[in-house]
Amino acid sequence: MNNIYLITKREFLTQVKKKSFIILTLLAPLLLVGFGAVIGLMFKANESHSIIEVVDKSGLFKDQLKSNDKLNYVFVSAADEKAKINNLKDNESLDGILILPELKDHDYANLENSTRLIVNAKMGFDTKQKIVSDITDVIKKEKIKQLGIEESQLNSLDKSFTLKTINVSNNNKEDSDLAFGVKSGLSILLMYVTFMFIIIYGVRVMRSVLEEKNNRVVEIIISSVKPFELMMGKILGVTLVALTQFVIWISMSVVGALVLNTGFASFQKNIPGGNEALASKLDIAQIATQISHSLLELNFPLIIFVFIVFFLLGYIFYSSIYAAIGSAVDNETETQQFTLFAILPLSLGMYGSFSLMNNPDGPLGFWLSIIPFTSPVAMIARIPFGVPAWQIALSITLLLGTTILMIFLAGKIYRVGILMYGNKATLKEIWKWIRG
User: Fold this and answer.
1) Distances, alpha carbon 205 to alpha carbons 11, 321, 322, 345, in Å
2) How does residue 231 score in pLDDT terms, banded at 50, 70 and 90?
């Protein structure tokens, strides 16, 4: 145990003292936010402003088609239709001409068949759909007038029904749409973080083993410690590195959320008078308060416990596989044929867990959260929605037992593979090492 502690300490200090670790730990959240901002700017930069001239032969659409910041309607006389169409190709400031024929005897089918949009270049799908939507709204209003129905009556008919849901198994608390959204968001976040950390730091364990093997440093270390102790020290050391980075990122996120919440609240209070409508739209502080309230209603002690247990066991389970892979090969190119065995089941658990949002207690959710290969991400995805205690206990027991078995098998592979050079490992060869 003393040797495992020393190797764990060495591996941890070696990793956290690197400048790359410090820079990545501090800048990763900022880079993530910046990446999201860049993606948003890219979508914004690709937006277009279209100018469409409208020839309205019936006069029905004259005051009905409303322009906005992305689409501008300019009504022109029907007498200029041919001239406008002929000059459209050379008119770079105009994107298209919308020809709306005369509506006769309320024949909307003929109106639809005769309407044409003539463009001088490729038009975006969103712009075209906006034009279709605007025309549909005008026709809908005209049909309502024809039927003698007032708009207020139609709005009353279209009003949706609000159903309040009371959960008797959760102290008769109301399950609101906001609470469900908060649970879904928390579920996806915890699941994705677990998946990424296991993959990233599992690969780091593999590369660390492979590096020491190629540098022949391991031959010196093996003379003082057992191969199993070296493997466990590396796994636990990198585990502490992952937890350290995770704690720092969580702390930065909490502080950032508090600062932003305070800043938005202050901004809202300083909005000049006479802008009540703007203030209601910018009630971000109230939304943040509702989200915080929904979060606080969750069983956080249980969520944190399950997250830590499944994260640690899942990480150790898959890191054992990665350590065995690193010891069995001689270069990173050869790792590709084996890493698939670690990535596939974990990916299956993550992508399968997206279906849990609609039915967390369904058969798929149950089996994904019980099978040890997928439970590290699937159980974490289910826990915000509530999971029976016996299922949590069963899943932990199976995952713990499988993790111990995987450590044992990985240790046997590591013991032989770490000192093997120039011999390309195959599945048949690795099976011999396990049986030996």
Assistant:
1) 10, 10, 7, 19
2) confident
CA separation, residue 225 to residues 56, 187, 319 (Å): 87, 42, 20
Between 13 and 164, residue with greater pLDDT: 13
Query: Interior CA angle at 293 toward 290 and 296, to 5°?
Result: 155
Lay out the sheet containing 96-100: strands in order across.
71-76, 50-56, 96-100, 116-119
Helix (H, G, I), strand (E, B) or coil at 5: helix
Residues 6+ apart with CB under 8 A from 195: 346, 347, 349, 350, 377
Q: What is the pLDDT of residue 259?
A: 60
Given this model, what pLDDT does residue 140 score? 82
Strands 71-76, 96-100: pairing kind: unpaired
pLDDT tens-digit readout, 253-303: 666 656 655 544 444 444 444 444 444 444 555 555 555 556 656 677 888
Structure tokens at 52: 């469409």
Helices within 150-226 (DSSP H only):
151-158, 177-214, 217-222
Please give the helix or strand (H or E) that residue 97 lies within, else none: strand 96-100
Q: Supply the DSSP symbol for 93.
A: T
The residues, any chain, with a CB within 8 Å of residue 231's CB and separated by 6 or more, are 209, 320, 323, 327, 410, 411, 414
Report pLDDT for 407.
Answer: 85
| 394, pLDDT greater than 90 | yes
Contacts of 2 (CB under 8 A, 6+ apart): none
